[in-house]
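---------- Forwarded message ----------

FYI, see the GOLI4 protein record below. Original note from H. follows.
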Amino acid sequence: GVFLYNHLQQKVRNAEALAQKYKQQQEALSAQLQVVYEHRSRLERSLQKERGEHKKTKEDFLVYKLEAQEALNKEKQDSMNRYGALSSQHKILKNQHDDVKKQLLDLQLQHNSLKLEHRKSLESHSQKFAQLQQEKDSEVTNLQDTVFKLREESKLLRKAHQEVHSQLLSAQAQMEEFRQLKEALQKMPGLR
């Protein structure tokens, strides 16, 4: 009985020691678990904060992207408007240049025609004058009247020739001005 009692007491002491050991382990595990919970709580708060900041950053980026897109679209529209205006101006100037070129060609043709007519008229007048010189002395008075009329006509032709020549010079100056304007337009980067 004593032996059994001692044996049972030994088992109780061993059980108490084991229970004490398990209790200490449980307390250590509880402390570790508490640390883990606190760490997890901090991580969750940090994650929540990061998510909030990420959401705000994403919203800010979307707003910035939208504003940048609007600014780009506005700049693109302005550029297209400027290009359209320059293109229209270029077409107008090109049409004016073509008109002036055609006008210059017409004036050159008119000038050449008047020049030829003037030369033919001078030749004709010279022939008539020579012929009239050879006619009878009785027709001297009539010849003088005719020569006077022919000289007046020659003056008018010369005057017309001078006017056409002046118009030609003016048209050439205007064409040079349009050429310079065309070169200036071609140097503009938007038009190119």
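H. also flagged this: Residues 97 and 177 are 10 Å apart (CA to CA).
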